[in-house]
Design goal:
Layout: E1 10-15, E2 19-24, E3 32-35, E4 38-41, E5 55-57, H1 59-68, E6 74-76, E7 79-80, E8 83-84, H2 87-101, E9 111-116, H3 122-135, E10 140-145, H4 146-152, E11 159-164, E12 169-175, E13 178-179, E14 185-187, H5 191-204, H6 214-228, H7 235-240, E15 250-253, E16 259-262, H8 264-269, H9 287-296, H10 300-308, E17 310-313, H11 322-333, E18 345-346, H12 354-363, H13 367-371, E19 373-374, H14 375-380, H15 385-392
Parallel strand pairs: 1-9, 9-10, 11-17, 17-18
Antiparallel strand pairs: 1-2, 2-3, 4-5, 4-6, 7-8, 10-19, 11-12, 12-13, 12-14, 15-16
Bound molecules: adenosine-5'-triphosphate and magnesium ion.
Protein name: Actin 6-1 (Actin-related protein)
GO cellular component, one term: actin cytoskeleton
Catalytic activity: ATP + H2O = ADP + phosphate + H(+)
Length: 394
């Protein structure tokens, strides 16, 4: 732990479908990164638990139990598609994050910045507000969308935010800090789908991981994706040629020291789903088309600013070759034609955590206090809670 929690600090939590990123405003990176996983196991004949309520486990505690295989735990994901799916589990998870992870004993002193998907509704946020104020009893909460914060992490307040995460990809223009919602494009062909496709590809090429547990297997496939997969420069040409780019074949060492060979086709096939959903036998717009659609739905005067400030964020934006291919493909489909060099992408090396970093920056500004909803004003006017959420969630 770098420092103790100070009342003036803001706790920044980015609730992702793959991981939950947690830390303190003003710091460069999240201090803690939790898998979006909850383990539940039944406790019987416990005097302290007369209703036999299942015990929930998170973070390191959960990892330990899985590793030791002592308890029979049922795993679930409290966040699905960028939304809290199980509020009961998630409220205990947040409590665990604050008390156990950040070692904060007085939750009444906590100021929170909660980051979630841009398309989550105000009604949804008002349900979360109840959890934070009525259950956790924190001092203040600011709800902020990850698209704006991703852009903000690069120092921009206007531009096109392109967030490629685990369950959701969003493309949305931001003007002076506010998302232009009628120009929002989103797709579920994101990190999770690419991992699933890679798993199928490995099977097709008879690379078996069956000797590993399901948990280990998923970790390995994700690791292969993150360390070896890339976006093809010219997919059609490459996929139709023989695998003669021998220099691009990579060896991957499995945890039991067996070495497997990952051919170029395996390395660029699954990630192509971003450019062609047909790779997954799905329909929908490609990422370049989503970008063009989003820009075209804005006023002409704004388009040049968007094209010059296209900010990439989220883990799935880390694939090598992504920017160059986006420039090529967008150039080809942009109405009226445009030069490749006109499409300027901002891709910070820390973009895997871009939304959290933007939140950390916002939390360290004085404006946080004027934007956040505090417990007192939330409680003083029960009828006005919804209008408070409407006015003060972003
Ligand atoms: N170097 C990398 N190359 C490719 N993909 C990566 C890389 N690093 C992480 N990812 C993928 O990015 C995804 C996680 O991204 P991110 O943390 O932005 O998602 P999230 O915030 O948890 O989910 P969401 O925003 O969709 O709810 C995972 O699918 C992960 O495998
Ligand atoms: Mg995210």
């Amino acid at each position: 732990m770098e420092s103790e929690y100070d009342q003036k600090d803001i706790v920044v939590i980015d609730n992702g479908t793959d991981t939950i990123k947690v830390g303190i405003s003003g710091e460069d990176y999240p201090r803690l990164i939790y898998d979006n996983k909850c383990g539940s196991h039944s406790v019987q004949n416990d005097n302290d638990n007369p209703n036999n309520k299942p015990q929930l486990l998170f973070g390191q505690d959960l990892k330990k139990v899985i590793k030791e295989k002592k308890l029979n735990v049922q795993l679930s994901n409290p966040i699905k598609d960028g939304k809290i799916d199980n509020v009961e589990s998630m409220k205990e998870f947040w409590q665990y994050i604050l008390e156990d992870g950040l070692q904060i004993s007085e939750l009444q002193q906590v100021n929170l910045l909660i980051i979630d998907q841009v398309k989550n509704t105000k009604e949804y946020k008002s349900k979360l507000a109840e959890v934070f104020f009525d259950y956790l009893k924190v001092q203040s909460v600011l709800f902020m969308n990850s698209a704006t914060l991703s852009l903000f992490s690069t120092g921009l307040v206007s531009g096109l935010s392109i967030e490629l995460g685990h369950a959701v990809n969003t493309v949305v223009p931001i003007y002076q800090g506010f998302p232009i919602m009628h120009a929002l494009e989103f797709s579920h062909i994101s990190g999770a789908e690419i991992t699933q496709c890679l798993e199928n590809d490995l099977k097709t090429y008879e690379i078996s991981l069956d000797k590993f547990s399901e948990e280990e297997k998923q970790w390995i496939i994700k690791d292969i994706k993150e360390t070896m997969c890339y976006i093809a420069g010219d997919y059609e040409m490459q996929i139709n040629s023989e695998d003669n780019f021998t220099e691009e074949e990579r060896s991957y060492e499995l945890p039991d020291e067996q070495v497997i060979h990952i051919t170029p086709k395996i390395r660029y096939h699954s990630s192509e789903a971003l450019f062609s959903p047909a790779v997954l036998n799905k329909s929908g717009f490609s990422l370049p088309q989503m970008i063009v659609n989003s820009i075209q739905r804005c006023d002409k005067e704004l388009r040049q600013e968007l094209v010059s400030n296209m900010v990439l964020g989220g883990g799935t934006s880390m694939f090598q070759g992504l920017i160059s291919r986006l420039q090529d493909d967008i150039c080809q489909i942009y109405p009226g034609g445009a030069m490749r060099s006109e499409f300027n992408f901002v891709a910070d090396f820390q973009r895997k955590y871009s939304a959290w970093i933007g939140g950390s920056m916002l939390g360290s500004l004085k404006t946080f206090q004027s934007l956040a909803i505090n417990k007192q004003e939330y409680e003083e006017n029960p009828e006005g809670k919804m209008s408070l959420i409407h006015k003060r969630t972003f």
